[in-house]
């Protein structure tokens, strides 16, 4: 079974009104659908370009923009749902701050081609989110989304740098991890890319990174975002030797498409050169607490 996905390296725009935002997003979904992909993935915080529609005094007000964006959330959901229905395609929408449990979470909504709507909240917050923006982690709920034989979870940016969430999803049956990202530097992008590749290796599945691109000095929340869209797999039988299925160039905007051979993952997990997913329990249980042995002083 082969499934085609498309990851957006999405450049932030500065819409002048809701209609401009709608037209741009529809054009992106149309172009994504024209690749014959069955799943489109937008980056972390892509919906923050809606900050442009707020009063100018809120463009750099990192706390004030959160409640000001709240009236747009329902409209964003309705718009993406209508686009998923119009083009008959599944969409992981660009995330945005959403009011929840007395605070705000970083939420990515997910839409099915027949109208189903779900979401995944980010669980691990960066220092910027926690210390400046006061965005809190989700409550721990994790969703495995199914689209025919494709089973995927959404692992938002910093979440990809920790194995626990991805492992829970893999053990639930995931064969793809979707990693929407927003990174300001090449170091940040590299951390998410390395995390994505590691999660693919240890869990015997595909990962796809969809980065935000931004040169937006008009908003402190956005300012600079860099990266490259990429699709990764375990470097094992019938899969790329370097684990890279496909990548766009550095800061190259557009859709990156890839055909995912799901049968190859079954081969890797059951008869690969190594069996990382099978051996995950032993790797967790075998090491004991470290002992210390002094080797003397450095010369």
From TrEMBL:
Looking up InterPro entries in the UniProt record yields: C-N_Hydrolase, C-N_Hydrolase_sf
Q: Write down the superkingdom of origin.
A: Bacteria
The record's SUPFAM superfamilies line, in alphabetical order, gives: Carbon-nitrogen hydrolase
Q: Give start and end of each CN hydrolase domain.
A: 3-262
Q: Name one Pfam family in it.
A: CN_hydrolase
A molecular function (GO) term = hydrolase activity
Report keywords, A-Z: Hydrolase
Q: Determine if Phosphoprotein is one of this entry's keywords.
A: no
Q: What is the name listed in the Swiss-Prot or TrEMBL entry for this protein?
A: Amidohydrolase
**Which source organism?**
Deinococcus radiophilus
């Amino acid at each position: 079974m082969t499934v085609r996905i498309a990851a957006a390296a999405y450049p932030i725009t500065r819409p002048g009104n809701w209609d401009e935002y709608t037209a741009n997003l529809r054009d992106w979904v149309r172009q994504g659908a024209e690749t014959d992909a069955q799943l489109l993935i937008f980056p972390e915080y892509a919906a923050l370009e809606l900050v442009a529609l707020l009063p100018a005094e809120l463009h750099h007000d990192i706390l004030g923009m959160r409640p000001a964006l709240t009236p747009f959330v329902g409209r964003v959901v309705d718009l993406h749902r209508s686009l998923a229905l119009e083009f008959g395609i599944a969409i992981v929408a660009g995330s945005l701050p959403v009011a929840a449990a007395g605070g705000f979470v970083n939420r990515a909504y997910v839409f099915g081609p027949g109208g189903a709507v779900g979401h995944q909240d980010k669980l691990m917050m960066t220092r910027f989110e926690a210390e400046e923006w006061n965005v809190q982690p989700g409550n721990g709920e994790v969703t495995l989304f199914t689209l025919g034989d494709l089973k995927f979870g959404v692992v938002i940016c910093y979440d990809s740098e920790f194995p626990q969430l991805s492992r829970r999803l893999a053990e639930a049956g995931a064969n793809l991890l979707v990693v929407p990202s927003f990174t300001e530097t090449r170091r940040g992008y590299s951390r998410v890319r390395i995390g994505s590749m590691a999660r693919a290796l240890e869990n015997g599945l595909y990962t796809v990174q969809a980065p935000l691109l931004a040169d937006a000095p008009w908003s402190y929340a956005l300012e600079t975002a860099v990266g490259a869209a990429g699709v990764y797999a375990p470097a094992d039988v019938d899969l790329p030797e370097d684990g890279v299925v496909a990548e766009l160039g550095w800061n190259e905007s557009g859709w990156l498409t890839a055909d995912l051979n799901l049968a190859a993952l079954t081969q890797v997990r059951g008869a690969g050169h190594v069996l990382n997913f099978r051996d995950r329990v032993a790797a967790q249980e075998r090491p004991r607490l470290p002992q210390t042995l002094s080797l003397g002083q450095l010369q």
